[in-house]
Amino acid sequence: MNSGDTAWVLISAALVLFMTPGLAFFYGGMVRSKNVLGMLMQNFFAIGIVSILWAMIGFSIAFGGTGPLIGNTEFAWLANVATLDGNIPGLAFVAFQMMFAVITPALITGATADRLKFGAYALLIAIWSILVYAPVARWVFNPNGWIYEMGALDFAGGAAIHINAGVAALAVVLVIGNRRGHGSEPMPPHNLPFTMLGTGILWFGWMGFNAGSALAADGVAAQAVVNTQLAAAAGMLGWLLVERIKRGHATTLGAASGAVAGLVAVTPCAGFVGGASPMIIGAVAGAGCFAALGIKERMDWDDSLDVIAVHLVGGIIGTLLLGLFADSAVNGDTDGLFFGGGAELLKDQFVAAAAVGAFSFTVTLGIAVVISKTMGLRVSEDEELRGLDQSQHAEAAYSA
Fold first, then answer.
1. Domains in the chain, number
2. pTM higher than 0.85 for the full model?
């Protein structure tokens, strides 16, 4: 075992864990004041339920056995993880991957804000983490997974996390419907300083998210840190530039959204690109994700906090651009189209994105429909008008 690598992975696991409270503040600031505790609770609850399910069976589905589609029970309840090969302890790898499993379903909460029943949400993410996230993580991150074996690259989860959660959010939105008053009454963010605070925590934690995926304190990790910073910066600038041109103002919400768009897009690329590539990827993501806001308006999708535009579209942009910008001089032996590798990697990236998207959408839609027809997914009209803080948790974030 390498003590330096182990320390870095353990620190990275803690950084990724910190991202989920950051996500709670990022989303919490964007909802109306009567729903802020509901949003914080949904995100914090994910830390609890998904951690337990990951230890029970999720990790084993993702990394147990040798099958290309789904694992076995050899690591259930964390049995036998000490036998995992590598230069870090098996439990360090379990912990790092656990934090990925936690934040992925939490991303969905931004799309369903203000109207999701808490009990239904708890059941939804519990089932989703087992039936959707764990198999997709296997396909992408496990050397035995079919997407990994095909040759597609995903350094830290562009497909496994962002496309997966983004398309799942779309499926749930289609089932749960729009907020009451959507399109006819203003629903401005209640606390943009919260959102900026959350953005800072996410940006900070993303260093562990991406660089920790090297699973070593080495040059690839250093490259991932630099790439992460440059892509986030370029994403923010790209979003603000287009926003200023289209809407006449550069906003704090735009700065936050653009930075996250850049972070999302560089996630699959972080350990495979170098030079100017992360800046190009981030800038394209910032501008492209802003442009994607128009999709939900045309389709009348009430994606409350732009999960589809930022995570789904940003994940697709990063996954596909990796097929152009991958550089074997940075890591591995695979070059993208712009570095002399031909179109093979780009094809594999497209297949990975399409397969993850189709699987996640189909299964998530089925889960959401069943919950909707049994216990119900959304709160009643009266509960929605009162707000989730009072109706679901009997609390208030702010005194009158």
1. 1
2. yes
